[in-house]
Amino acid sequence: MIIYSAMPLELIFQNEDSHSYDCQEVQINGLTMVVQPVGINEAKIVRLISPNPQDYLNPTYAPGQKIYFRPKLDGGY
User: Fold this and answer.
1) 60's torsion region: left (phi>0), alpha (psi -120 to 50) or beta?
2) Whether 34 contacts 22, CB under 8 Å
3) Percent of the chain residues past pLDDT 90, beyond the cut
4) For residue 68, what pLDDT band results from cuts at 50, 70 and 90?
5) Could you tell me if residue 60 is inside a domain?
6) CB of 57 closer than 8 Å to CB of 39
7) Element at 16 (helix H, strand E)
8) Is 47 in contact with 24 (CB distance < 8 Å)?
9) Which residues does residue 43 pair with via DSSP β-bridges, in sequence order?
10) Which domain holds residue 21?
11) Rounded CA gap, 57 and 38, in Å?
12) Residue 73 forms part of a structural domain
């Protein structure tokens, strides 16, 4: 992204660091993804992390999709 502006970048991006998202990296069905908790047992996929291009074509794991899970006793998913 290129921004052409006479305004200083500090003014343009002054609120960029104020966003705090409670995101977690989890592994579900062998896929690593970054999720944002929405409810008790559900989360919204923010980002998929995989070296396999076929995983990105699966609409089940597309960013914005909600996933449901049961937390493990050791704190993982």
Assistant:
1) alpha
2) no
3) 40
4) confident
5) yes
6) no
7) none
8) no
9) 37, 67
10) 17-68
11) 24
12) no
CA distances from 46 to 11, 28, 36, 53, 64 (A): 27, 14, 7, 17, 6
DSSP state of 51: S
User: Which neighbouring-strand residues pair with 71?
Assistant: none
pLDDT confidence tier of residue 71, bands split at 50, 70 and 90: low
Amino acid at 53: P
Domain count, the chain: 1
* pLDDT higher than 90, residue 44: yes
5 is a domain residue: no
DSSP state of 56: H
Residue with tokens 């990105």: 56
Residue 11 belongs to some domain of the structure: no
